[in-house]
Specification:
By secondary structure, this protein is an alpha/beta fold. The protein has helices at 27-31, 45-56, 70-76, 98-110, 125-133, 146-157, 165-176, 182-185, 191-201, 206-213, 217-231, 236-249, 251-257, and strands at 16-17, 37-41, 63-67, 83-91, 116-120, 138-141. Strands 1-3-2-4-5-6 form a 6-stranded parallel beta sheet, sandwiched between helices. Strand 4 (83-91), helix 4 (98-110) and strand 5 form a beta-alpha-beta unit. The protein starts with 15 loop residues before the first strand and ends with a helix.
Length: 258
């Protein structure tokens, strides 16, 4: 494709690498300044190209790449800087659809050291929990601006996990439920672990939990590790989401953990 056919092309294009040809003599020199890259995965070509160009316009430190599948990226990976993050745009699809859940699991497993972030039209609490359960390190709703999206991706690259505010409101609703404790936790945790679980769901630090339950902090840490093992979680954030998913799902989810 000749750049003369794209009259509005400007230097913001230099930040984005797409699986189409744009003859810009400055592209290779500028791309060389980027030390890392971000891959957008979306099988909808127009959507991924538009998103990539909008992200590139934010003057990102990352080189923005857009592909229909991870296999397409693998064929060209040697041409680009090392991968810092993967943004999987699922659009209006449900996270628990077999094709989507399998894709998240596969990517998070294959690229274990690279954060996989899900971008979706929905901010449903159950879908967010599922995405994290399948291995995603963040969930961004399509309602945010491009600049906010870039900041949230940077957060994931730095090791953080982002979820929408709507998920926090859903968690608060669960915490305020009067009968939310006994049923789903029965038969899974010891009485003391139940107390620690409730404290974790309220976002309390180990020192606070130890003080309130009259325990040593080292004992609290042991309880937290055992709780993580029982719900198959790798960190405290994942523990909270899995526990709240357990409360939402009721006895069927509880039996699956036993």
């Amino acid at each position: 494709m000749n750049s003369a056919l794209i009259p509005n092309l400007d230097l913001r294009q230099e930040n984005v690498a797409l699986p189409l040809r744009i003859d810009n003599p400055n592209t290779s020199a500028v791309a060389g300044r980027h030390t890392h890259s971000l891959v957008i995965l979306d099988n909808r070509e127009l959507d991924r190209q538009c998103l990539a160009q909008c992200m590139a316009a934010q003057k990102a430190d990352l080189q923005i790449l857009a592909f229909g599948s991870i296999e397409e990226w693998k064929q060209k990976r040697d041409e680009y800087p090392p991968l810092s993050a993967i943004l999987l745009n699922v659009g209006g699809k449900k996270i628990d659809e077999p094709t989507v859940s399998e894709q998240i699991r596969k990517l998070s497993s294959e690229f274990a050291s690279t954060p996989l972030i899900v971008l979706a039209d929905s901010d449903d609490f159950g879908q967010i929990v599922r995405a994290l359960e399948y291995g995603a390190k963040g969930f961004i709703p399509a309602s945010v601006s491009v600049s906010v999206c870039m900041e949230l991706i940077a957060l994931s690259v730095a090791g953080g996990i982002f979820v929408p505010a709507s998920a926090l409101f859903a968690m608060r609703h669960l915490l305020d439920s009067s009968n939310s404790t006994a049923r789903p936790l029965s038969g899974i945790f010891t009485d003391r672990q139940v107390e620690v679980v409730e404290a974790l769901r309220r976002g309390k630090a180990n020192k606070i939990i130890a003080y309130e339950l009259n325990l040593r902090e080292s004992t609290v840490k042991v309880h937290v590790r055992n709780i993580m093992k029982k719900v198959k979680a790798t960190n405290r954030t994942e523990v909270v989401f899995k526990l709240n998913d357990l409360f939402l799902s009721g006895s069927s989810a509880a039996s699956s953990l036993c």
